[in-house]
Amino acid sequence: MPDTSAQQPVLVIMGVAGCGKSTVAALLASQLGWDFQEGDDLHPVENVEKMASGQPLTDDDRWPWLDAVASWIREHDLAGIPGIVTCSSLKRAYRDRLCGPHVVFVYLAGGHGEIRNRLSARINHYMPPALLESQLACLESPAADERAVTIGVAARPAEISAEIIRRLGCAPNRSLRHWVHQLPAFRLRLLWGTNGDRWRVTAERAPTWFNMTPAGSQTEFH
Fold first, then answer.
1. Which residue among 47, 83, 110, 132 is buried most deeply as judged by most CB within 10 Å?
2. Residues 64, 164 within the same domain
3. At which of 148, 168, 188 does a domain end?
């Protein structure tokens, strides 16, 4: 059993484009109730435009983005709040920029052909498959002295997520502080039961603050 009294980590889900970082990270966040940040969303607009045009990023392009990712990690680490962030973290120097006392890198490793097939199947993503070669050329797998685990990507995402939780002893976050912290990111929906004798409560992600909006037999808090 994991030691739930110990501070849980901030996980950096790393690897080249197409390895499944976002899918696995979202699954982990859902299962554990941990904060989740999609690292791609922290890229400056200039980086996104450059990659979309088929140009690989340079170190100078990446440092401001890595600093933004590091800021998110540091905020959670110092506050003792577990979290999950996706970030390719291709080089040791990049990971050194992100590391902290409770940061663990989860490297999703896959073969060249497998990753290329995944990239080719993606829809509506700015990262073209042609840039895979540049990422593989930059990739430095985590060394033995880094706080990292390597997980193969051949299994299904649910199996990968379960393996990460098992190997790292991750514990679900049930603290009141976490749910208060999450309030701006959730919408609570109260629905009258189909048999008319009970209320059903569900929660889903929402981008706006709560406000009460009557809608017939349904009340939503945004």
1. 83
2. yes
3. 168
Structural domains counted in the chain: 2
Q: Which of 137-141, 185-189, 194-198, 216-220 has the highest mean pLDDT?
A: 137-141
State the DSSP H helix or E strand holding residue 202, giving kind and residue range, or none if neither. Answer: strand 199-205
What 8-state DSSP symbol labels residue 131?
Answer: G
Range of weakest confidence among 4-18, 133-147, 154-168: 4-18
Contact 98, 70 (CB under 8 A): yes
- Residues 154 and 90 reside in one and the same domain: yes
Residue 105 belongs to domain spanning: 10-168
For residue 106, what are the CA distances in angstroms to 14, 74, 95, 207? 6, 17, 11, 28
Q: Residue 39 CB: number of other CB atoms within 10 A?
A: 23
